[in-house]
Specification:
- This protein is of the alpha/beta class and 289 residues long.
- Helix content is 26%, strand content 33%.
- It has 6 helices and 17 strands.
- The strands form 4 sheets. Strands 1-16-17-15-12-9-10-11 form an 8-stranded mixed beta sheet. Strands 2-3-4-5-6 form a 5-stranded mixed beta sheet, with no helix packed on it.
- A hairpin with a 2-residue loop joins strand 3 and strand 4.
- The longest helix has 16 residues.
- It is globular, with a radius of gyration of 19 Å.
- The two termini are 29 Å apart.
Length: 289
Amino acid sequence: MFIASGWKDYEVIDTGEGEKLERWKDVILRRPDPQAIWPRQRPELWARADAHYHRSARGGGEWEFFRSLPERWTVAYGDLRFYVRPTGFKHTGLFPEQAVNWDWMAARIREANRPVKVLNLFGYTGGATVACARAGAQVTHVDAAKGMVQWAGENRRLSDIDETHVRWIVDDAKKFVLREARRGNAYQGILMDPPSYGRGPGGEVWKLENELYPLVEACEEVLAKDALFLLINSYTTGLQPAVLNNMLTMAVSRHRGGKVTAEEIVLPVTAGGVLPCGATGRWQQAPSA
């Protein structure tokens, strides 16, 4: 398992009965989590929640607030800073489990000790973008949602990353990658965090089971000869680590060598155990002799 255990401003306090109780700095949120099918270990702690997201039988849901919260607030991970807030679709604008991948990519970038260009596809609010830029990479951040790109830009400023280190693109991920291949552009690092289903800015339909492998193949075309890594995240039920391992082996490692690893990605739970948060597959180029 890849365990994101380096947080101080974030904590999973307890889990169970289809929910998780989390601390985001000094705000405690209670949110649905379908993986948590076991009993709660510390039931007495759940009354501490400042807000609770209730799912609706009709789809979606809404927040119930037990005290007045700021519209948004900041959390820190090392020297990185991010805005978080309760959104109408239960999320907060940050997936804290991804910190284990931020650390891994940042280490690859620093170890290279040379210029590194990174392509972040489905970049969301820019956690990985900020982490890679802080490590010294030039990052191209791509997301189909203009609002998410704006939020990512705010996180870049909040973390005091120079604006010249990031290029912001509002576009369909695959279309952008194919254009980059035609232009002859290449990247030393590529990461992607694709949704199960979505639409691009031009109405393009994205279905993960149909689109992911062709996208990985397209990304292999824009990996530089001196590439460092290609990383895939998945929150889709059924897309297990072995699936990511197979895709990276067939689409990348078979042509370039290197090492493929794929594991569950998890968060530690203070009350005990870990919370599964999807899967991550990593391809890493073999170090030079």
